[in-house]
Amino acid sequence: MRRYKVTRAGWVMALVALLGLVACGEGGEGEGDSEDEFGALVGEADENGKTLFEASGWEEPIPGKEDSLQGRRGLSVNVDSSDLSVWEIKNQWTDTDTEAARAAGLAWGEDSGLNWDEKFQRWVGSMKKIDAESYGSTFMLTTPFGREVPAPALECAEVAMFLRVTFASWYNLPFFMEARDSEGNRLYFGHFGIRTAAARYGRMPYFRSRYEDYSEKADAIRAGEAEWPTDAKLAGLTIPGSQDDAQPMLGEDAHAGAYFDHIYLNKRVGYFMRLLLTYFGSMNLADSANTYNLAPEAVQPGDVLLERWQRRGIGHALVVMRSRDLGVTEIDGEEVPQLEAELASGSMPRRQPKWESPAASKRVFTLSYTGGEGYEKLGGGLKRFRSAVNEGGRWTNVVLRGDRDAFISNTDYDAIAERPDRFEVILSELSPEEKLVALVELVESKRQHLRRYPASCSARIGREQAFDDLYETAADPAIGWSKDEVDRRFRKVEDYVFAELVYDKSKTCCWNSTNSTMYDVIMELNETRIEDPETGQCQEVLVFMNRDDEGDGYQLFADFTEATGRGDAWVKWSEDEFCAQRDVAEDTLEVTEAAPLCSVYDELESRM
Hints:
Layout: H1 12-19, H2 65-70, E1 73-76, H3 99-102, H4 116-126, E2 129-131, E3 137-142, E4 148-150, H5 156-170, E5 176-180, E6 186-190, E7 193-195, H6 207-210, H7 218-222, H8 232-235, H9 256-263, H10 267-279, H11 282-285, E8 291-294, E9 304-307, E10 316-331, E11 334-345, E12 354-355, H12 358-365, E13 381-385, E14 387-391, E15 394-398, E16 407-408, H13 413-426, H14 432-452, H15 457-474, H16 483-490, H17 493-497, H18 516-529, H19 555-563, H20 597-604
Antiparallel strand pairs: 1-15, 2-3, 3-4, 5-6, 6-7, 8-13, 8-16, 9-10, 9-13, 10-11, 11-12, 14-15
C-alpha cells in the first residue's frame, strides 16, 4: 500500500481548469464560487486515489515534555472574525462552571462537573449499538436537536474526524487540524475555515458569508415548534471525488451532503466537513500536532486506535466506542487493572462504522501495527485528539491538564512499543474458545464485505490474516485442532473463489466498482464447474482474478453473465484508484496455508 504523486483519474479535467486559480493570497469576497472549492488537488495520493495533505512536520520537543504537552502554536484568534469562519466559539474545552457547561446534555446531567472533552467521551460512549444497513452492527448517532440517525458510511479515518468536528461545532468549541501542502505551506482546517497563516487557502469557501447557519432555530426545533431547515445544494452533494459515499439510511439517492444537511443546523459545517474528509486521512490523525499518544489504562470512548505500517500514506483507524472498568486481577504479585474496550471502524469503499465485539477489538489493540515493536516510529497506537485552546492570543492544540499523566511523548519509543503487550494484559483475557468465536465472526465479516465488493483485496487479506490467527488459536492444547481441521470446520468455497491476491501485482485490487450481483455471477459460474459432470469429482475453482484472456482479463465471467441472460449486470474493469499494476497480464495469487480445496471439499460442500 503506497502513495503516489497523482490524483484520481476522474478529477483530471477539473484540475486542469483549477490549477491556474490556485493561490494563497486573500481574494475579494465572492471569489471562489465554483461548485466545489478544491483549492489545490495536487500532491500526494493514497492507493485509493484520495488526495491527502502531508503531515505537519512538527515533532514533539526532546526532552521538553512541557512543550510537548503545550503543542504547536497556531493561528491568531483574530482569524475567527473572518468571513472564512465556519462556526462561532462560545465555549472552551476546559469549561466546567459556565452556564453552558452546567447545563444537561446528550449524555450528562446538570452540574456534571465535566469539561467538554469528558463530555465528548460520554457522548460517544452513550451511542446505542444497532444493526448496520449492510452487515454487522454500527451505532445510532444522537444529536442535540432531538434527532437520531444511523451512523454515516465513511472511510476509517473519516469516522474519527467526523465525530470530533460534529461535537465541536454543535457546542461551539474551538477545533482545528493542521497539515502541509505539496509546497510545504502550513495549512489549518478548523472552526475559522481553511487557511494558511496569512490568508485563505487556494479558493476555499468564505463559509460565513456564503452559507447559512440556522442555529437560532435549535430551541424551537427541540420543542417541535419549527421544521428542520434544508440546504438543497448541500443535500445534493457528495464528498468530492467520491464514488462510494451513498447514505442508504436516508434514502436511495442520498449521499454525504444529505447526511450533513440532516444533522447540522449550521450548514457551513456540512460544506466544511466535505472538504476536511477529502484532504485528511489517518496520516494526519497520526500527526502529533493533531493527536497525542495515550497510555493504555487511560483508554476512553472517542479515542482513536491507529494501525500504521508506513510513516507516510494511509493506515487504518478505529474509534473506541466503549471502555469498561472490570476491576483488578493479580498477575505475578501485581494488581493489574482489567478493562474491556470495543472499537468501530469505517472502510474503503465507505461503509457504516462496523462495531466490533470486545474479543475482536482486543485482537486489534494487541497488533504490532498499533505501534508495537518494529512499528513504534510510524505513528500507530492509541491516540486522543489534542484540544484547541487560546494560548497568548493564538489557537494551540494542547494536552488538557487532566490528561497529562496519561500522555506518552511520540519520541518515547519504548513506552509506545510496550502498549500492545500492555493491552494483552489489561484487556479482559479470553479463553481459547472465546478467541475462536471472535475470529470466526471476523472471517464472516470479511466475507460479507466481499459479497458486496468481490474485487476487494483488503477484505481478502483481512480474511486470511484472521485464518492465520484461527490456526494459532486452534492449536492451543485446550482445542488441539490442526490447520486442516480448522479449514474443514470453517472454510467455505467462496474463500477459494476469492483467494488472496498480491496487492501490487494484481489489477483486480484497483477495481472498487464491483457489486453484489457480480458476486452472485462469480459463485454461480463456480457451482457449474466445481464438480466434474461425469465423475462427480471435485475440481479446482475458477478464482476471481484477472487472467491473460482475449478480453479485459475477466472474459469468462462476462461471457457467463451474458449466457445466463443478465446482459449488462457485469461491469467492466475500471481503474477506480491509481493502479501501477494496471498492465499486468495476469494477477498473482498469494501463497496460502489453506488446505487445497479438493482435500476438504466433502466438508465444504454444504457451505457453498
